[in-house]
Amino acid sequence: MPLLEIRNLAIHFHTEGGVVEAVKGINLTLEKGETLAIVGESGSGKSVTGLALTRLLPEPPTRYTSGEIIFDGKSVLTMKADELRKLRGGRIAYVFQEPSTSLNPVFTIRNQIAEAIQLHRPELRDVDAEIIKHLDLVGITNPAQRLHDYPHQLSGGMQQRVMIAMALSCQPDLLVADEPTTALDVTIQAQIMEQFRELRSKLDMAIILITHNFGIIGNFADKVAVMFRGKIVEYGATKDILGNPQHAYTKALIQCIPRLGAKKRRLITIDHAALEAAGA
Fold this sequence. Notes:
Layout: E1 4-15, E2 18-30, E3 35-39, H1 46-52, E4 62-71, E5 74-75, H2 81-87, E6 92-95, H3 99-102, H4 109-120, H5 127-137, H6 143-146, H7 156-169, E7 174-178, H8 186-203, E8 206-211, E9 223-228, E10 231-237, H9 238-243, H10 248-255, H11 272-277
Parallel strand pairs: 3-8, 3-9, 6-7, 7-8
Antiparallel strand pairs: 1-2, 1-4, 4-5, 9-10
Helix pairs in contact: 4-7, 5-7
């Protein structure tokens, strides 16, 4: 049985300006320990899909107009509030794009990670030891000394590592990383992606990486789903799609990846109207 199944999922936002069809009948499957990248430009529906996994989208204006989300054999869309609280951060954890806005500036690192542990693992006695273990796991030096630091005392890269440690401290089955490196410089991006690779092999945890950047998924994701305007236009093994993309939108995204030694040329323009007309 797959860890996660998304079947014909459609999500609409009912606003004063009308109905926005954010996700249009998508299908995805994720096995335990597998890594899936959801790739697309801003507004393609990839972040909405990630948030829908634990129904973090406010209802209303959100409406799930069709389909199912099945996590470990249970329907997420029919779960009650107490079941969702256990799912969120417990079995499915998130790492978001901006660590500086995800961390509370008035609480120490220790307090923020401890809150998550006490909520999802109340049986744990030595909380500080568990926090130190996870800070060390994500590569923070002198973790015992960092317990009482506030977010502003840490660099952006270290803040993101704290967010990863917080997510892992609840021992999730699935980690959803939504543009986790976008706000970081290129060197730190590489370090964070290497961190995810190491954690995946150590913990046998499923990961969904949401990104606009094909350049960071080649050595990371087992499968990739390419989203365009709420639809999945290409889905399969990463090596197959990178090596032989079939859809025009996928080809355009891959051509945007900068390559050392390549001749300078203008970036291609993605013709959205033409893709829509072609049924993308």
